[in-house]
Amino acid sequence: MNIVVLMKQVPGTSSVGVDPTRGTLRREGVPAQTNPYDLHALEAALALKEQVGGTVTVVSMGPPQAEAVIREAYWMGADHGILLTDRVFAGADTLATAFTLSQALKTLEFDLIIAGMQSTDGDTAQVGPGVAEFLDIPHVSYVREIKGVAGPEVGAGTYPLPEGAARLTVTADLGDTLLIQDVCLPALITVTKDLNQPRLPSFKLRKAVADKPVSVMRAEDLPASPKPYYGLAGSATRVEKIFPPERTVVREIWEGEPDELASRLAVLLREVVGK
User: Fold this and answer.
1) Structure pTM?
2) Is the peptide bond before 186 cis (omega within 30 degrees of 0)?
3) Residue 167 in contact with residue 156, Cβ under 8 Å?
4) What distance separates the 2 farthest-apart alpha carbons in the chain?
5) Which of 62, 74, 113, 222 is most deeply buried (CB count within 10 A of its CB)?
């Protein structure tokens, strides 16, 4: 099974400003890290590789320093890495990012694409499904369990599959319910942090892959498109403001005898209910 994992480098702090002219996040001089949700995606890919065989390729889009994301993936067991980096890609919103990634994926052979359900710098959860739509393949979001993968069996699973199709069975967390779904491959899934516990980078692997190359793709390396959505020019949205959510929780510590505290709590509850 050829698995592609989409990974992103995100700011390692909440203190990120916005360029007032371009309407994009200012990332220069800000500590960076691998998007935590993407580590769960990588772990899922590595576990599937160990189960059924195949390869794991990591694809990331960002400035040249985003190569660190792929290096970390190598230390965990990824086989190949591709970095999409070009000034043309700068300032991309979720639409342009999904389009750019999809164009790169069209140059690869894959059975399954796995991504974190969202990134910590955007929280939109739009890029994964957007990539699937541009590729015209099925997708399932918020996967919390991969129940199994099966070969080309006609009629296997909960609904008839096309002849020769392989399938992946997953459990998706829809908030108020869990959905067990069969999805035909090739497909894309986005995963939650409840799926697994990412393994730690291997020091032995780190030494072994120290000189392992990272492939670089630029705009001219991608398939021609009649309407390319690249970078800021191809983005449909702009960031106007970024700020941490307001803290509305107030904590109080009460001390006293149990009867006194119980009476005080009862008065507070009546006040809250009355509002």
Assistant:
1) 0.80
2) yes
3) yes
4) 75
5) 113
